[in-house]
């Protein structure tokens, strides 16, 4: 390798390090989101959840991962071997690739692409191949039906999600993820407060796109066993699982960047120093971690088994170290990225909590209801919303209207349209009315 | 050989090889998978030309949209019979003659026109953001053709829905 080639490779070194960190940390994070899901579900159902492996089940994800890795890998006899082997890999690769353009902090980003948002949308739409091909290659009816449902669902809801994102793009004036966050910093308000309806549409569509309850038709266990994953076991199955949770984090990341202000802390436009060498509100992350450490210490005192106590104290130490890092990031500008990453991750976790909350709150939709909601409600609503946002922006920028008035006007009109659309959809359509009449006539 | 050329030949070879594999597969799903690979490799070449908007649009439209629907249809239609039959066996020599004729034409075009097709040298500085440029070109300079094309597509779409479904 000559020196010129080294020079050409030079700009790739830092992104590669970031990429390795993300690929290494993400599966662990996904495991802990699964644990969180089980814990949240347990608390919502007044149960304990995983308690045995580690204190409060904190080591459960690691035990699960070991179990999945050691499990027997079964390939159905008449499966298409190549595609069966390739499909989960494709799913997980595409899910991880989307992280290349997600900005965790002002400096913590693998690549600041000019078309960052489109890139993430493009790559995450490729994840569907893992599901479709896996379902087909399994040579099983349940798998194929799950795969087809998943493809139909994704194609239907991608439109609504895309249209919802465009209204955010109009406000930000760029496709670059970094520029979008900076635009929110300049305007001084997160876009969710300007275009709440877009956020709502994107949230519903993103749940449908990641095949989560109440839109988990492709893996509805009461109808399709496990949908496209029916024939998968062991490590391949866990790859699908990882892809699903990685995709959840990606859509949360998009929503966080576009609507929730990305790495900006809450009240980003408030600059209060109170005589300190840094902004007063920036001290919050360190305090939060110290609080977590205190809480873990309190739990550690209560553990009866010495090993459990030790593990709990390890977590106390971890949180203290994190609090120290946060405090250090206050004074050193180099570490400002960590501070941004903290708020980004907190927002992503809040959004993910919404995912879990919906899962345990709403019953599953029927497939025709799902299609009806997507095509007859969300897409028209997204179109009208986009038009209203564009008109509001025009009034604000070219006619000098006050931003608040345009926001109220455009969102109010969109809400009126939504109400009309909802009442219109509630009436049975002509074919349904005929079917009803035929059914009652038959009796 | 620079890093750039290595990347170009990687994508180019990937596109050509997977196109050949795509044509020779018996199973329609396998063909679709290799067509996806070809399209992705082409997208990679777009990206290398710093046409990142084209790169993303190629992936979103062709790979993420059209090919998903292709696969959808392939899975719904029963293709087992076609797989078992030997196809195009009798037309193979016709195909060979046509391929040779086409290849000769292309070669001749290259020989006759060599040197006539001078492209300006690529600028060394980074290109301007081309999402904005394409948007401005489509919505300002070529506004009318763009709108006509959109209406044409809309009419085709409505026509397809009307033909496929008598009652809506």
At a glance:
Helices cover 71% and strands 0% of the residues of chain A. Chain A has 443 residues and is an all-alpha fold. Chain A folds into three domains: 7-70, no CATH class; 75-264 and 345-390, no CATH class; 280-331.
What is the overall shape of chain B? extended
Strands of chain A, count: 0
Summed up, the helix count of chain B is 7
Question: Could you say which structural class the secondary elements and strand pairing of chain A correspond to?
Answer: mainly alpha
Sheet with the most strands, sense and barrel status of chain A: none
User: What is the overall shape of chain A?
Assistant: globular
Order of helices and strands of chain B: HHHHHHH
What radius of gyration of chain B results from the CA coordinates? 21 Å
Terminal CA distance of chain A reads 83 Å
Unreliable runs of chain B: none
Question: Could you give the distance between the termini of chain B?
Answer: 61 Å
The percent of residues in helical segments of chain A reads: over 70%
Strand content of chain B is under 5%
Gyration radius of chain A (Cα, Å) is: 24 Å
The poorly predicted ranges of chain A are none
Number of helices of chain A: 16
Beta-strand percent range of chain A: under 5%
Mean of the pLDDT scores of chain A? 80
Largest sheet of chain B: none
Based on DSSP secondary structure assignment, what is the total number of beta strands of chain B? 0
Given helix and strand content, the structural type of chain B is mainly alpha
Properties at a glance:
A: 443 residues; mainly alpha; 3 domains; 16 helices; B: 168 residues; extended
């Amino acid at each position: 390798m000559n020196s010129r080639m080294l020079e050409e490779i030079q700009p790739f070194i830092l992104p590669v390090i970031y990429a390795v960190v993300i690929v290494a940390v993400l599966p662990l994070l996904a495991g802990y989101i699964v644990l969180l899901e089980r814990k949240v579900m347990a608390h919502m159902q007044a149960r304990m959840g995983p308690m045995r492996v580690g204190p409060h089940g904190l080591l459960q994800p690691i035990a699960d991962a070991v179990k999945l890795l050691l499990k027997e890998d079964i390939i159905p006899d008449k499966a298409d071997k190549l595609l069966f082997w390739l499909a989960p890999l494709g799913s997980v690769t595409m899910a991880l690739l989307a992280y290349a353009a997600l900005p965790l902090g002002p400096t913590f980003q693998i690549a600041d692409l000019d078309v960052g948002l489109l890139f993430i949308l493009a790559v995450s739409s490729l994840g569907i191949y893992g599901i479709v091909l896996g379902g087909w290659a399994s040579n099983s009816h349940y798998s194929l039906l799950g795969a087809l449902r998943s493809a139909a669902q994704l194609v239907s809801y991608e439109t609504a999600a895309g249209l919802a994102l465009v209204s955010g793009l109009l406000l930000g004036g760029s496709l670059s993820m970094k520029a979008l966050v900076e635009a929110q910093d300049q305007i001084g308000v997160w876009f969710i407060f300007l275009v709440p309806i877009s956020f709502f549409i994107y949230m519903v569509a993103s749940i449908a796109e990641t095949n989560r309850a109440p839109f988990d038709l492709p893996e509805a266990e009461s109808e399709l066993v496990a949908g496209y994953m029916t024939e998968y076991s062991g490590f391949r199955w866990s790859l699908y699982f990882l892809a699903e949770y990685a995709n959840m984090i990606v859509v949360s990341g998009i929503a966080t960047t576009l609507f929730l202000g990305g790495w900006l802390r809450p009240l980003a436009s408030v600059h209060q120093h109170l005589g300190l060498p840094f902004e007063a509100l920036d001290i919050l992350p360190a305090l939060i971690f110290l609080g977590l450490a205190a809480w873990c210490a309190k739990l550690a005192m209560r553990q009866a088994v010495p090993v459990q106590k030790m593990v709990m104290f390890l977590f106390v130490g971890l949180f203290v170290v994190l609090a120290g890092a946060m405090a250090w990031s206050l004074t050193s500008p180099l570490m400002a990225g960590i501070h941004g990453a903290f708020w980004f991750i907190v927002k992503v976790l809040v959004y993910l909590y919404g995912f879990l909350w919906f899962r345990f709150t709403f019953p599953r939709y029927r497939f025709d209801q799902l299609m009806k909601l997507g095509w007859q409600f969300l897409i028209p609503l997204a179109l009208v919303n986009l038009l209203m946002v564009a008109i509001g922006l025009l009034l604000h920028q070219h006619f000098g209207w006050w931003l608040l008035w345009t926001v109220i006007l455009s969102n109010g009109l969109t809400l009126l349209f939504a109400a009309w659309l909802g009442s219109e959809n509630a009436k049975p359509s002509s074919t349904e009315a005929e079917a009803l009449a035929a059914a009652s006539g038959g009796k | 050989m620079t890093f750039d050329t290595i990347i170009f030949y990687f994508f180019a070879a990937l596109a050509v090889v997977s196109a050949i594999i795509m044509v020779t597969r018996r199973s329609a799903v396998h063909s679709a998978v290799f067509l996806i690979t070809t399209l992705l490799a082409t997208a990679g070449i777009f990206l290398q030309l710093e046409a990142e908007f084209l790169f993303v649009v190629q992936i979103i439209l062709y790979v993420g949209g059209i090919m998903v629907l292709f696969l959808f249809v392939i899975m719904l239609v029963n293709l087992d019979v076609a797989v078992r039959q030997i196809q195009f066996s009798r037309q193979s020599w016709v195909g060979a003659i046509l391929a040779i004729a086409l290849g000769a034409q292309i070669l001749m075009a290259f020989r006759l026109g060599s040197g006539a097709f001078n492209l300006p040298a690529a600028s060394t500085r980074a290109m301007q953001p081309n999402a904005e440029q394409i948007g401005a070109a489509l919505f300002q300079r070529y506004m009318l053709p763009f709108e006509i094309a959109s209406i044409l597509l809309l009419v085709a779409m409505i026509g397809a829905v009307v033909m496929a479904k008598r009652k809506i």
